[in-house]
Design a protein that fits this description.
This protein has about 210 residues and is an all-alpha fold. The chain has helices at about 35-50, 55-75, 80-90, 100-105, 110-120, 120-130, 135-140, 155-175, 180-185, 210-214, and strands at about 10, 15-20, 30. Strand 1 (about 10) and strand 2 form a beta hairpin. It is globular. The termini are far apart.
Length: about 210
């Protein structure tokens, strides 16, 4: 039987099984009871959806995965986390999970935290106020996403993501028709909770918001 899940349902908390990315069949589900951080990440992911809105977390999650795994390819695993995890994890048939699936499960907490950082509004406010991404870079280490992270060149995945994100915002901001906003940043089916001082809880906050409404 093929398994279908949404982006925020990677773990079955009741049975402590990995059921998300990398799993196509029920027999492939992995017992992750010995990965408590990954179990906690499921609750964190669910809370992020409630806090920021499903659409925004859903959009940020694959970007966070791509970004984080690109960083992993550039760094070593000094504590042998992946080899250790493979030795203590087995799927429903008793087999060891693949290296790729092991990596996905072990570093899921960091990916979820990074997705929350990308989906949040604070990084937009900080970037617009300061004109740079220093706060965002700092938070990568502060939130234990990637310790000692410092982008060394402009091709860094985070720098590229920020540049693409703001170039899209600028295109939308200066477009003649305000309807272009909904094409790029459609509203939530269920809007996120209203933040203090916000005039319209149904519209996603943006540093370029006034341009859309004029």
């Amino acid at each position: 039987m093929t398994c279908w899940t949404t982006h925020d349902r990677n773990v079955c908390l009741r049975h402590r099984l990995w059921i998300g990315n990398g799993i196509a069949d029920a027999d492939e589900q992995v017992d992750i009871s010995r990965l408590p951080d990954t179990l906690r990440a499921q609750r964190h992911h669910r809370n992020l959806v409630a806090r920021h809105g499903r659409r925004w977390v859903r959009n940020a999650y694959p970007d966070a995965r791509k970004m984080y795994f690109a960083w992993l390819q550039q760094s070593a695993d000094p504590f042998d986390l992946l080899d250790t995890a493979r030795r203590i994890l087995t799927d429903g048939t008793g087999n060891l999970p693949s290296p790729g699936l092991t990596r996905t499960m072990v570093f899921h907490p960091q990916v979820v935290t990074l997705a929350g950082l990308l989906a949040g509004r604070e990084r937009e406010r900080r970037a617009v106020a300061t004109g740079h991404v220093a706060w965002l870079v700092e938070q990568i280490t502060v939130r234990n996403i990637l310790l000692g992270y410092v982008p060394k060149e402009r091709t860094d995945p985070l720098i590229q993501w920020v540049e693409q994100h703001f170039s899209t915002h600028k295109f939308v901001a200066f477009h003649r028709s305000p309807r272009i906003y909904d094409a790029f940043f459609p509203r939530e089916t269920i809007p996120p909770p209203r933040q203090p001082g916000e005039a319209d809880a149904g519209t996603r906050w943006s540093p370029f918001h006034p341009y859309y409404l004029c």
